[in-house]
Amino acid sequence: MSEVVAPARVLVLGAGSIGSFVGGKLAAAGADVTFVGRQRVLDEISASGLRLTDLDGGDVTVAGDAVRVSTTPEDVGSADLVLVTVKSAATAAAVRDLDGKIRPGTLVLSLQNGIGNDAVIREILPTCVVLAGMVMFNVVHQPDGRFHRGTEGGLAVQDDPALAQFTDVFARAGLALRRYPDLLPVQWAKLLLNLNNPINALSGRPLREELSDRDFRRCLALTQREALAAMHRARIRPARLTPLPPEWMARLLTVPDGIFRRVAASVLAIDPEARSSMADDLELGRKTEISWLCGEIVSLGAMVGLPTPVNQRLIELIVAAEHGDRRDWTGPELLEQLRSADRFERPAGSR
User: Fold this and answer.
1) Helix (H) / strand (E) containing 320
2) Cβ-count burial of 105 within 10 angstroms (0-12 exposed, 13-18 middle, 19+ buried)?
3) 146 has which bridge partners?
4) pLDDT tens-digit readout, 71-112
């Protein structure tokens, strides 16, 4: 008689857009999932269930009573896998709630933006297997429990033997894990792409519309070039996640719209509904992750002695938007803001 294998018990710490989509997919694939998050979202999941759609036509539903919800991580001791999907600023506080409750050896996977969240978690939970991971797609939260994947991409994770028992359920969920011996180059490459988040948030437009505008792409090119210069001086080599290497992509961003649409069609393969998570945060009046995006570049630049005025200006504009300032900049207006910051900081003739 064959042995009956119990479903993987998964705790999703942070039932936002990413956590609800990934956790919902795992639940649909047979995992025993508990969501921990804000009461408003948990009530929505309980009342409406989850409907998980994507730009490729996928449509999966999970009944509200098929998952558990909680505002605090109560049953941590039974979890086989913890997915940390809270905003980076909330990492330490959220993970401290697991301390003393979680079983030693439990796999804790950070699926968050930025660099270094796994180190924060590892310091708080030293007896757990803590791995860095990255969600390479965008998710939009819509009413009645619908979460829509609006861009291409999967899950990238730091490789470890502890992943073996979970690879099947992730594959069944349509979220096959792409495993890397060293995830840092991927994290830096993803950070380069995420530098568009503040630009998108300040534009007030959907991602595809914003990226179809040459002036907004010029803003992104300025931001990425500054980041690449700091990475180069720090001897960081970001992985290649786009059809062209990062340095070439930064140049391609500046070409006229017609050429960009022909040459970089895959960049614009984005659902019309998709927006950056930072745009959602501003709309909901929440603090953004700007310190874990542009802030990482400013910190890196300071460490290697390289000015990063473009990224610093984006931080200032996003912080102002968090306090109610404008988030409807036109492409030319935003481009002039960033160019002015660059001209003011750098001496004539310098890069």
Assistant:
1) helix 309-322
2) exposed
3) 51, 142
4) 999 888 899 999 999 999 999 999 999 999 999 999 999 999
Quote the CA–CA distance of 89 and 95 in Å, as a whole number. 11
Residues in the chain: 351
Q: Write down the residue that tokens 């979460």 correspond to.
A: 147
Longest dimension (CA), the chain: 78
d(CA 81, CA 73): 13
Cα–Cα dist 300/65, whole Å: 46
The pLDDT tens digits for 312-338 are: 999 999 999 999 999 999 999 999 999
d(CA 252, CA 261): 11
Q: How far apart are CA 102 and CA 99, in angstroms?
A: 6
| Of 179, 177, 178, 173, residue with least CA distance to 23 | 173
3-state secondary structure at position 59 = strand
Amino acid at 246: P
Phi, psi (5° rounding) for residue 19?
-60, -40
Q: Which residues pair with 177 in a beta bridge?
A: 155
Cα separation, 209 vs 203, whole angstroms: 10
Rounded Cα distance between 348 and 345, Å, is 10
Cα–Cα distance, 110 to 133 (Å, whole number): 5
Burial classification of residue 139, based on how many CB atoms lie within 10 Å of its CB (0-12 exposed, 13-18 middle, 19 or more buried): buried
Beta strand 59-62 pairing with 68-70: unpaired
Nearest to 198 by CA among 288, 324, 325: 288
Q: Which residues pair with 139 in a beta bridge?
A: 149
Q: Angle at the Cα of 177 (from 175 to 179), degrees rounded to 5?
A: 165
